C-alpha cells in the first residue's frame, strides 16, 4: 500500500512541477513619455475557480488555454465526468479540439469539440468528457487544439493528467472469535 502512495505522491508532484512550467512573463517594452496610451483590450477570460490548467507543449498558452476540473475522484469502474474550458486569447477563424485517452482509461463521450467559427479573443468554450477508468494508474489525456487565424492553421498540444485510485476492496467479514475456555479450579 505504501508503494501505491509513493507512486501517487510522485505523480502528483510531477504534475504540479509540469503545471508550474510555463513561459516567463513577457518583458515590458520601454515606453516614452510621448507615446499615446493604448486602448484597453478585451478583459482576459478566466476559467472556473475549481479548474486547473492543462500542461501545454511549447508556448501554446499565449494563443489558447485549456483548463479542466474532474467531476469526482477517479476510481476504477466509476464514470468520471471532466469539465473542459478552452479559452482563446486571440481571434480565430475556426477552433476545434480532439481528445485522446490511453489504454486503461476509456473515453465514453466527448472525444471531439465541434468546430467553432469566428472565435473572438478572450472567449471561453465549454466542453465535457466522460471517462471510464479500467484500472488504477497514472494516465494522460492528450488534447489537440487546431486553430485557423492570422498565423495560418496551427495545432497546439495539451496534456491532462488523471490519477486513478484502485477500486475499494470489500470489507472482510469480522473473524469469529472462540469463547474463552472455562477452566475449572480444583
Q: Can you describe what's shown?
A:
The chain is mainly beta and 186 residues long. The protein has one domain: Immunoglobulins (Immunoglobulin-like). The chain contains one helix and ten strands; from the N terminus they run αββββββββββ. It has one helix at residues 2-20, and strands spanning 52-53, 55-56, 64-70, 80-88, 92-100, 105-109, 112-119, 124-133, 137-149, 152-164. It has a five-stranded antiparallel β-sheet, with no helix packed on it. Strand 9 (137-149) and strand 10 form a beta hairpin. The longest helix is centred in the N-terminal third of the chain and has 19 residues, at 2-20. The protein is elongated and about 90 Å long. It starts with a helix and ends in a 22-residue tail after the last strand. The model is unreliable at 15-19 and 23-42 (pLDDT under 50).
Short descriptors:
single chain; mainly beta; Immunoglobulin-like; 5-stranded antiparallel sheet; 42% strand; elongated
Unreliable runs, pLDDT <50, ≥5 residues?
15-19, 23-42
* Name of the level-1 CATH class: Mainly Beta
Provide a count of the helices: 1
- The name of the CATH topology is Immunoglobulin-like
CATH H-level name... which superfamily?
Immunoglobulins
- First CA to last CA: what distance? 51 Å
Number of domains as seen in the coordinates:
1
Order of helices and strands: HEEEEEEEEEE
Q: What is the count of β-strands?
A: 10
Give the overall shape, derived from the CA principal axes.
Answer: elongated
Mean pLDDT: 79
Strand content: 35-45%
Radius of gyration equals 25 Å
CATH architecture term: Sandwich
Biggest pleated-sheet summary:
5 strands, antiparallel
Strand order, largest beta sheet: 1-3-4-8-6
Structural class: mainly beta
Helix content: 10-25%
